[in-house]
Write the structure tokens for this entry.
Amino acid sequence: MADKIRLRLVTPSRLLLDEEVDEATGPGALGEFGVLPKHISFLTLLEAGEMSYKQGTDQHRLAISGGYAEVLDDVMTVLANAAEYADEIDVERAGDARDRAEKRIAELDHEDKEFAAAEAALRRALVRLQVAGKEARK
Amino acid sequence: MATLKAIRKRIGSIRNTQQITKAMKMVSAAKLRRAQEAVLAARPYAEKMAALLQNLSARVAAEAHPLLTAREEKKVLLLLLTADRGLCGGYNSNLIRAAEGFLRSQRGEKEIQLAVVGRKGVDYFRRRKVEMAERYINIGSRPAEELAAELAEKLIARFLQGECDAVYMLYSRFRSALSQVPTMEKLVPVAAEKDEGEGQATEYLYEPGLEALLSSLLPKVVEVGIYRALLEASASEHGARMTAMDSATSNAAEMISTLTLQMNRARQASITKELLEVVSTAEALK
């Protein structure tokens, strides 16, 4: 079927999704990108962010924390470092992680090696919270 | 002939051992199942990663990134994955033997450095005063992702600094609970089979750019390779231990039955002897 794309989403610990979808969006290194059928061959780094896909009228949201995405011949492969469906997100844990990361950032120097790690952790926590929040309002 | 008391004591101690081996077997069986699930769950990601790498390398020259470029192999690093614990049959010794074989076959031609993971391997080479570039013990206490990331970072740094020209990895591939095969793989430089047939491969659109992508993706490929090997190694270890403990348990059962027979004979003999003594004393008193 040429009017659909096959979306495969894997993380190191599991195969999350392997289905036909109508469109998908993901957090690329240069900003959010959308993929529709007949997309050009495309390879990108993914940032921590929100990824979503549409099947008919259903929209699904996921939080992913970095990885790679490849689009080739209407097959989109997403290799995420970690990914969760919006309704799987543990809001409490993500909140704790955000608080911890904020504390670390406040303590650390900008020069510090750990600063970047703390910042990345904060971004991941915020993405989770944001995605979970959107899902809750739906 | 051993005395009755000695035999009884021996049976008791064998029975204790049997209980321990039986318990270890059951623990290993449970751990094996979990490890096996982890191996299966990690497989799709590793496969997709390999496919992506292959698509990419069909479009990119080998010189595009140092991690893709093969150099003349003068100095080679061998990453050996062993277990922290023994009592798992020939698991560790098979791996160490394979490593020794590799060292011997390359001796004189190349300089070989060793990076050893797992207490058993580390102890072995330390006893023989073989120098190790890296060593890791207590691997069970931390998640495999973390260890894989750290190992990948260190090995890649060595390669990029020219301390070694290639990295090989020796680990135990998990076939089944009964069969684990020591396997050698080349880890660095990252080698993807080139599909020469697909000459007209369309160019990708890269974001944020080919170079940045490769610098992020290639180390990840190495990391995923190590991660997968760690999972396979852990499944192999538990499989080997389960098999070893199973045969130890049945050996113990066999020994117990032999000793029980011996004990009954000894008891019979002593009863006969006592009877004879009673009878002959009574005879003498007549």
About this structure: Chain B touches chain A at residues 38, 41-42, 44-45, 48-49, 51-52, 55-56, 145, 202-208, 212-213, 216-217, 220, 224, 227 (CB under 8 Å). The mean pLDDT of chain B is 88. Residues 4-21+245-285 of chain B form a domain with the Helix Hairpins fold (CATH 1.10.287.80). The first strand of chain B starts at residue 75 and ends at 81.
